Amino acid sequence: KTIFRRPPNRKTTYGKHMANQREKRVKPSNKHHSQPFWQADKPYLHDCQITDGGFRALGYIMSFLAGAINAGGFFAVQSYTSHITGSMSGAADAAYLGDWHGFFAAMSCVVAFLIGSAHSSWTILWAKRQRFRSSYGLSMWLESLYLLAFGLLGVALSHYGRILLPPTVLLLCFIMGMHNTVMTVLSGGIIRSTHMTGTVTDLGIELGKVLYYRRSKNPKLPDIAVNHPKMRLLLALLAAFILGGVVGAWGYHRLGYHFTLPVAALLFWFGAGSVGYDAKLRWRIYWRQKKRLKR
Question: How far apart are CA 41 and CA 27, in angstroms?
Fold first, then answer.
């Protein structure tokens, strides 16, 4: 038998060879660095020194602080200032009933939360443009200062009554927007420290995968991979938020607005390492330039 074979196309073979060579050149090497599951497509995170365990611990503590701050907001103004969904629903109900004062009050909370989120995001991007390592730490420092201002407003609120109530509510919404942005940007949307609705939704999605029929039971159905590390992370975030709310309620009822001091100090301490490094580095650069000018 004679088998006729088509002669190889030299152009096609050469094109495939060059394409393979380009892929080898462009394809990054993962030998020295394996990305955790939480890292999004952010070029400024790929060389980050934070470990997976450190990232998880930071997420738990930020959720804990979010629960404590939220409890303090309810203690001060009898409202949960991180509940933007409720504020939007309240604004819609007030608009239907013709209560324009309630409508503008609810929408003011939403706008304050939005401005706080934009402020934190702008701070992070500005610090990265200046080549600071303390982009997230700087945002935490600013949030700690705003928390101290909330404590002062709370003390004044107990003396001057309802006059200072609107600025206190708006400041709390602003702070919660900042707090939620830091972990959202850092984790690529995996962690939202104040938005437990999204956390429960993601947990429900993974739980649905657990309860789904497996291929071993029914080969006609596709197999679904369950992200067990993500489930453990989401469960721990929920537990941390609840624990923070309990501790925050206890602290504000026992210590009053003085409880903002340890919360602000914890945020300040988180950003101290990176901000201190940048300050030390900039100080050295300044002195070197000064010495060169003297010469």
Answer: 15
